Amino acid sequence: MLLERIYDEDLAQASYFIGCQAKGEAIVIDARRDISEYLELAARHGMRITAVAETHIHADYLSGTRELAAAANAEAYVSGEGGEDWQYGFDATRLTHGDTITLGNITLEARHTPGHTPEHLVFLVTDGAFSTEPGYLISGDFVFAGDLGRPDLLDEAAGGVDTRFAGAQQLFTSLKEQFLTLPDHVLVYPGHGSGSACGKALGALPATTVGYERSNAWWSKHLADDDEQGFIGELLDGQPDAHAYFGRMKRENRDGPAVLGPLSPLEALTSDQVRSALEEDRAIFVDTRANDQVKQGTVLGALNIPAGGKFASFGAWAYDPETETKPLILLADGQDQAHVMRDHLMRVGIDAVKGYTISLADLPPTQPATITPAELADFEPALLLDVRNKSEHTEGHVPGSKQLSAGRVLWHQDELPTSGPIVTYCQSGVRNSVAASALRRAGHDVRELIGSYAGWSDWNTSD
């Protein structure tokens, strides 16, 4: 049996490629939408992807199940559990508790593990060439290394009302009846790692075991004592802010993401083409440089989505394809980088990339408004806005500030003043630059606090 983890550092998301060398067949579980890596992996091992499955209706990225199934002519498998409200809206084979998928000597058994979501499945994997007993668990957002999938996302991202309590109770039962009944040696491969917003304390380890979690996880003492209320209280306390785009991901993944098919190469646009598109308001410029460079000067009306580790997440904070119809023009050092950035945006359902340019020259310039901590001391903004998470704000903040995380500000403008300057800050300035650029484009008068909270703290201490 071949089992490979394909990990996206941007979204801290894992998908899994499981193949039977004897028969040359493979399945991909929880695929992302840019699918070339799965196809290349299959070709390298001389395998054919015959099945594509997912553990649940994802909230943090757009599923590639339909995309990969179409490209590989494979069977798509999704959950048929969870009740009427959590049924998928596209053609696929529905799996219920106990159903199996067979690939040569390999058997994958679907087990219903509600809690994170009502329809959630895990896949218990048996390598029949080696053993008659299961040895691996593809756990999705059920059990992570050191943590559990949060049960409050339906409230935070899908319009639920107090569903978190029922979800937490279901999670307690799923652990007791599905996870802790497995042998200690079973290897657990989770759907996310450290940095994901799908839990509050995810470990960075790529895998764990049932026995290790049974002995060491924070929740194990509650299960051992049959302490459901203590479990629920600790589970729900301190969960991170859910990004607003999670609601869109839930809807699109349930209904079925559009299948894009083979993509054409992105066009390199001249400065004249870019300037014309911007002046005629036919496109949005994306400045992909670091925030300190952007503060020295950028393009009028640009979004700052810095290239690198969190490009998909930042993009989904700053651009809402449900309300924005104009395509994006990326600043890139060449076609290869532009294609990588396009792939990352596709993972969060942002498909409208028009092309790229390699230079800011001859484009309409602007310099983002800023304010120093010393100037802020004598300034009265209409709003002082902390775009960090709730937990960060609780630990310490600039006095008088309102907290609204960067991944939510664009969707909660009703909480912002309609006139007057808004001063924004995060911890170091990166998230702040993304949020501030989105708010400026939405028409707000925004001034970024130089150094953000770290800079203000240093100034306040030395003053």
Automatic annotation (TrEMBL):
Name of the protein in its database record: Hydroxyacylglutathione hydrolase
PROSITE patterns: RHODANESE_3
Pfam families found in the cross-reference section: Lactamase_B, Rhodanese
Keyword tags: Hydrolase, Metal-binding
Signal peptide: none
GO molecular function: hydrolase activity; metal ion binding; sulfur dioxygenase activity
Span of domain Rhodanese: 378-462
Highest taxon listed in the record's lineage: Bacteria
Any one GO biological process: glutathione metabolic process
